[in-house]
Amino acid sequence: xxxxxxxxxxxxxxxxxxxxxxxxxxxxxxxxxxxxxxxxxxxxxxxxxxxxxxxxxxxxxxxxxxxxxxxxxxxxxxxxxxxxxxxxxxxxxxxxxxxxxxxxxxxxxxxxxxxxxxxxxxxxxxxxxxxxxxxxxxxxxxxxxxxxxxxxxxxxxxxxxxxxxxxxxxxxxxxxxxxxxxxxxxxxxxxxxxxxxxxxxxxxxxxxxxxxxxxxxxxxxxxxxxxxxxxxxxxxxxx
Length: 239
Prior knowledge:
239 residues; alpha/beta; TIM Barrel; 8-stranded parallel β-sheet; 9 helices; 45% helix
């Protein structure tokens, strides 16, 4: 896909987001766009940067590290979020390459991130991933486990970590009622956690992807994660 197409796709997505904000009674600009660049080459990311997109999401740490290490040399203000399930043995590279980890789904992961942040003298933002759909395999599966993780941060045990919000994935279904329920569950859970831990500014609600981001915006999303609608179909590696 060439630069013109990516630029056009970005403009289209941003217009749709703006319309969804307006129809939902939201302020213009209240929803950020995270461009998901997994399996897309460096050239496509650079085309998006040239079109004004600076915030990107990657699922796989190894791919993200090799890709953005190069991108940062020319575009140091680019922002990378890790959005895929993060294994403990990948945390070191993730901390080095990204500014936010959106897929924090267990207390042990917070402890591991803190360890590497301390070693690298770096602070990093995190989102707590919450399980709201039966088909999702990751995320805190109960309010109690989520609450325990946030409390751990509130106790000052992870000073290099900045709790910044929440992330969820809706089930892959055509039933819009189910999708609405998934996102509203995340919103109300976030509201409850924010009331319990007012010392944190956890305002980010990362909800919605290419197929359901309009619904997510209706339900209060402040960040949508979109890949295919921007970059086209992914070029999956052959095994």
